[in-house]
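Deliverable D4.2, example record:
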Amino acid sequence: MAAIFVEPIIGGNGVIIPPDGYLQGMRALCDEYGILMVSDEVMTGWGRTGAWFAVEHWGVSPDMITLSKGVTSSYFPLGAVLVNDRIAKHFDQNVLSCGSTNCAHPIGCAAASASIDVYQQENLVNNSAVMGSLLYEKLLELKEKHRTIGDVRGKGLFSAIEFVEDRSTKEPLDDLGPAVKLLREKGFWTMNRRHILIVAPPLIISREELQESLLILDDVLTQLKL
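Output generated by the structure prediction step:
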């Protein structure tokens, strides 16, 4: 049996969000041809996009979900695969002959259980959705103010700012290094993919903390005339 792996939102290349209908169309094709749909939620899972898993934004149910990182809040390395009932029932009668030295590591599983409790008790997935809406709104305002911002993209607290030399040609800005260095010096911790700045605050961020961070970003862009 074949399988298609897809990131519902492509993170490493700059938070690329698919158009509405894309994932639904993939699900339909998988159903038509008997292909398993596997959603890679290592970066987008566990509330990062304002839903438990990013595929939920498009009402899609994959056959499998691969996950890591957020399941333990990255306090301990742990990965897992979620499967639907049809796949799970197959292994009720068929042995899955595989494993690893650290399979079901007790500390990793304990960290995951504790993290999930906090996600639920502190309503962090909803906070990601609410703060994410504010973040996107403020990033659009920055786009209007700063000439080098060619595009902003985001779902929940998973956003990106794409910097360009010229908006009409969309030529990428040559070097974000000085901006990233200055941002970190001022307490705005981030990373970039060449000309794309990733903005992904922690899910516990408050409105006041988010606004303070965006003021730092605005100040740095103004200082560097970006």
